[in-house]
Amino acid sequence: MEKKKKWFKWSPPRILVTGFALIILLGAVLLSLPISNTSGESLRFIDALFTATSATCVTGLVVVDTGLDFTVFGQIVIIALIQVGGLGFMTMATLIALVLRKRISLKERLILQEAMNQSSMEGIVRLIRKVIIYSLAIEATAAVLFTSRFVFDMPVGKAIYFGVWHAISMFNNAGFDLFGEYRSLTMYVNDPIVNFTAMGLIILGGLGFIVMSDLIEYRTNKRLSLHSKVVLTMTGILLAVGAIVIFIFEFSNPKTLGSLGWDGKIWASLFQSVTPRTAGANTIDIGAMRQASIFFMVILMFIGASPGSTGGGIKTTTFMTLVGAVIAMIRGKEDIVLFRFRLARERIFKALTITLLSLALVIGVTMLLSTTEDRDFLRILFETTSAFGTVGLTTGITTTLTDFGKIILSLTMFAGRLGPLTLAYALGPRAEKELYRHPEGKIIIG
User: Fold this and answer.
1) In terms of C-beta distances under 8 Å and separation of at least 24 residues, what long-range contacts does 133-140 make, across chains too?
2) CB 312 within 8 A of CB 417
3) 3-state percent breakdown (helix, strand, coil) of the chain, nearest 5
4) Three-class SS of residue 41?
5) Which listed residue, 4, 112, 156, 218, has the most CB atoms within 10 A of its CB?
6) Quick one: which of 143, 114, 141, 140 has its CA closest to 128?
7) What is the percent of the chain with per-residue pLDDT over 90, rounded to a whole number?
């Protein structure tokens, strides 16, 4: 009885952190088994742990070739971890409860609220139902499209398997692939079906389920929430600016866009603009890109996807809030106004906190890896930001990481998936309500 009371007193962030950690540990054990590996031998536990963390945190960084080194059993374990990690283990638990017609308790609703990054519990179970339905429908549609293309390159059975597998991986912004030799989708750089389907999945997965719900119900409601407007606007701006910048910087690079025709240049620019939104797939060699392009992609990866999505990063709404704060300060305004709505001060403080914690994490990990990994600073910064943003893009240094580097990046992926603020809430002591306020003081800023 005492244990049950202690469990009930656990905060939702702490339960989320513990739940993800247990899933990763289970995945690591399964992936380390001989049945999971084509060599028939046990995989080193550190490599299995890194892979399980990358899959559960829907990142895509790999130290073992998913397509060549894992058996079908190992690949199914990985894709299961991706699905659970992308939708959230509480979403999957709620699905099982709904199927069994069990009642969702208040505690479970609070955890779901934290997992989906919602401000209230109102309609949370209804939102979870939508998440499950939308996800399965999108993944099924994409699986058909992928299969229709892959069937020209491989037997029908394998094409179906690849189609379903990659549909789940891309929608959950995981970036894992089965093509082997760490090639990702480079062989389909000019292919309209693969590019369109993959980009569609990445964008939809990165928008967030609240925005998807708003868009689907727009025909009935004829309106979008402020959250959806901010997400769609910032997503559109980042995708357009990203594609233009990459097109300009890489246009004459013979190792990337320079060797492609106009259609290939456009597809590749668009895809490499979409994928830093925490997807991890690529159609050109990221390591061969110019330094300006790589640094620009670091910025895109740091911003990441949107709240309530399968992606990571500080999120588009956080970035929009910061931009709004800068504009308001320059104009001498007291309030941040977006689409004629004033943002609450608490939202602004949260955006600043998330950004500073994220910057501290990325800077700290980059400094650590710079002392243990014999690589260029920019490539280490790229790898660190990719891990934090749960992106999965790499310039080619993941497979050469030291064991210490693998552990540090695994922790970074874990922190990036859950969010530094959630992690801080989970690990820190419970704050007591202040009964008084200190007198106001003034300091000089700037």
Assistant:
1) 134/209, 134/212, 134/213, 134/216, 135/87, 135/171, 135/209, 138/171, 138/201, 138/204, 139/164, 139/167, 139/168, 139/171, 139/201, 140/167
2) yes
3) 65, 0, 30
4) coil
5) 112
6) 114
7) 55
How would you write 138-162 as a 3-class SS string?
HHHHHHHHHHHHHCCCCCHHHHHHH
More confident call, 332 vs 433 = 332
In one-letter notation, the amino acid at residue 10 is W
Encoded tokens for 301 = 């990866």
Residue 247 C-alpha from the chain's centroid? 24
Burial class, 405, CB count within 10 angstroms (exposed 0-12 / middle 13-18 / buried 19+): buried
Specify whether the CB–CB gap between 186 and 282 falls below 8 A.
Answer: yes
Amino acid at 234: M
pLDDT for position 394? 92
Radius of gyration of the chain (CA): 22
Do 286 and 395 meet the contact criterion of CB atoms below 8 Å apart? Answer: yes
3-state secondary structure 274-312: HHHHCCCCCCCCHHHCCHHHHHHHHHHHHHCCCCCCCCC
Take residue 121 and report the two structure tokens written for it: 């519990």
E-strand stretches of 3-141: none
Tokens standing for 283?
Answer: 């159609």
Gap between the Cα atoms of 427 and 429, Å rounded: 7
Tokens of 148: 């229709």
Q: Do 156 and 40 touch, CB atoms closer than 8 A?
A: no
Distance CA 444, CA 438 (A): 19
Neighbours of 219 (CB within 10 A): 7
Contact between residue 380 and residue 366 where contact means Cβ atoms under 8 Å apart: yes
Report pLDDT digits (tens) over 343-378: 888 888 889 999 999 999 999 999 999 999 989 999
* Number of CB atoms found within 10 A of residue 97's CB: 16
Three-state DSSP at 271 gives helix
Each residue's pLDDT tens digit, 247-291: 999 999 999 999 899 999 999 999 999 999 888 899 999 999 999
